[in-house]
Amino acid sequence: MFKSLKDFLNKIFLFNIFKGRSNLKLGLYGPPNSGKTTLANRICQDWLGEEMGTTSKVPHETRNVQEKEKINVKSGRKEMTFNLVDTPGIATKIDYEDFIKAGLKKKEAQERAKEATKGIIESIKWLDSMDAVIIVLDSTIDPYSQVNITIVGNLAARDIPVLIAANKSDLKKSDLKKIEAAFPQYGVIGVSAEYGDNIEDFYDELIKLMK
Amino acid sequence: MLTLQYVPMDEIIQLDSDRKVTKLLKIIKQDKIVMLEGRLSNKEEGMLIERTMEEIDKKFKGIEIASLEPNVRKDIGSALRDGIFKLFFGDRRGITIMGPANIIKEIKRDPNKLQLYTSNRRGRK
């Protein structure tokens, strides 16, 4: 109750919920294989000169929450410093046989499945620690999945600012308008994390989100 | 044989979030498809995913879930009235379908319809 009142007063009188805060946490959330770690790597390479984590075509490559501290992003005269948190993709099902089909050995696949379930739980638990979130969606895939709706709903319930990165915009099947129609309450920016397309506009929107 | 079990909101409204999720997961783990009146809260849906992940093993692969709700634009008065109603009586708008991932392969959502694609294991289509 006291916290809610304090948050409300901060918003009213400071006009800036992040003013004076250090160690702001910016989370990357989304379903598996949407390109969260690829985008995290792009941001970290651009502003820290190092990568965040490994990527793979096999889903659930990121199975632990990873954090890079003090990333200072600049766009024109504006800048923002935050900790970037890359989270495991959220899903409602994990079948180790899918990993075998993707080329893993049985034991490796079972271990990956076990770690992936723990990673999803960890992702959800970290929601409460976020100051702002980029939802990374694969813009070639139908956005109307319950996982996406649950992520968006949970962020809205916590009053966490959200920007949607419609990733893989370089691909022919990419459909930015469908994502905009699915989540009209949020800003959507098309981006290719792999090739860096539209990344400057992405940084501009990111700073606007957190200022 | 595919079993669909209807769960009216009245059956779970008195339960706390933890018990609601436990009850729904128990039905799903009996290889039944749940048709829930209305929908869970956002936090309960998050909790359902967490609990599902905790219970995944060699037999239980997780769930498929999708909700449909009427997209009606409201004025402030009716939105407030609905908010108070939801607080006491649950969100009864629309319907939520959920079931085990070994039976439901995929649920596709259109604005006004849900399409269930079931696995063809054990002769199902």
Task: Briefly say what this structure is.
With 211 residues, chain A is α/β, with parallel strands linked by helices. Chain A contains 7 helices and 6 strands.
How would you describe this structure to a colleague?
The complex is a heterodimer of chains A (211) and B (125). Chain A has a single domain (24-57, 65-91, 121-210), classed as Rossmann fold (3-Layer(aba) Sandwich), CATH 3.40.50.300. Helix content of chain A is 39%, strand content 19%. Chain A has seven helices and six strands, in the order H-E-H-E-E-H-H-E-H-E-H-E-H. A six-stranded mixed beta sheet of chain A has the order 2-3-1-4-5-6, with helices on both faces. The longest helix of chain A has 21 residues, at 106-126. The radius of gyration of chain A is 17 Å and the shape is globular. The relative contact order of chain A is 0.17. Chain B has 125 residues and is an alpha+beta fold. Chain B has one domain (3-123). Helix content of chain B is 35%, strand content 32%. Chain B contains four helices and six strands, in the order E-H-H-E-H-E-H-E-E-E. Chain B has helices spanning 9-12, 17-28, 42-55, 76-89; strands at residues 3-7, 32-39, 63-68, 91-100, 104-109, 114-118. Chain B has a four-stranded mixed beta sheet with strand order 1-2-4-3. In chain B, helix 2 (17-28) crosses helix 3. Chain B starts with a strand and ends in a 7-residue tail after the last strand. The relative contact order of chain B is 0.20. Chains A and B meet through helix 4 and helix 5 of A and helix 3, strand 3 and strand 5 of B.
